Amino acid sequence: MNQTDNYVKDLNKALMNKALAYLSNFSSTENKLKNILQTFSKNHFKKFEINQVQKEIISIINRCKELGYINDEEFTKNKVEKYNYEGKSKKAIILKLQNYGIDKIIVNKVIGEFFDSKENTEFRAALIFARKKSLGPFNKRNLNDNFQKVLNTWFGSFSRAGFNYEVAQKVLNIKSSFEAENFLCNIENQKY
């Protein structure tokens, strides 16, 4: 074994240690882990050829996938559910997932499965969004004077958040916050 082989083993070991240290603290995607390892190698392994470093990074990522430390599909499933329960629209969720660098095929598959398997997911997210922003039934101000202007503003808020007109209208047609909270509590059993 020559000195170059020892350097490659050291590189591999250092990259694997960095990957494990990062993954022990954060849930990650392949793309994010690749970026972390590239930044690490640029700062600490300048004497190696870029091709050799890239080859080792790909090897580390494949090893982490084999061990189950990174799984883009599971990561995507968790994020879709989390964002939906935070009141994010389907469009907003897709944009956030694309920012993670997740493959579009995985994003479309997981989004499709999630929104097809549960009814009223977009409506529930819109209700949660309305509650966070005090829109529609969650509004606490007196609106007698400029109701149409406020209603247009609310529709604009829903639109900017990625909700379509029909979903926004369903939310804004709810009369009280009590009724809206009741819908949120019982949404799995109801159809709209």
Keywords:
192 residues, 10 helices, 72% helix, single chain, elongated, mainly alpha
Describe the structure.
There is one protein chain. The protein is an all-alpha fold and 192 residues long. Helices cover 72% and strands 0% of the residues. The protein contains ten helices and no strands. The radius of gyration is 23 Å and the shape is elongated. The protein starts with a helix and ends in a 6-residue tail after the last helix. The model has no long low-confidence stretch (mean pLDDT 85).
Q: Topology of this protein?
A:
Elements: H1 3-25, H2 30-44, H3 50-67, H4 72-85, H5 90-99, H6 104-117, H7 121-133, H8 147-160, H9 165-172, H10 177-186
Helix pairs in contact: 1-2, 1-3, 2-3, 4-5, 4-6, 5-6, 7-9, 7-10, 8-9
- The poorly predicted ranges are none
The separation of the N and C termini measures 70 Å
Largest sheet: none
Radius of gyration, Cα only, in angstroms?
23 Å
**Structural class estimated from helices and strands:** mainly alpha
Roughly what is the average pLDDT, rounded to an integer? Answer: 85
Strand content: under 5%
Q: How many β-strand runs?
A: 0
**Helices and strands, in N-to-C order?**
HHHHHHHHHH
Task: Give the overall shape.
Answer: elongated
What is the structure about, briefly put?
The chain is mainly α and 192 residues long. The protein has helices spanning 3-25, 30-44, 50-67, 72-85, 90-99, 104-117, 121-133, 147-160, 165-172, 177-186.
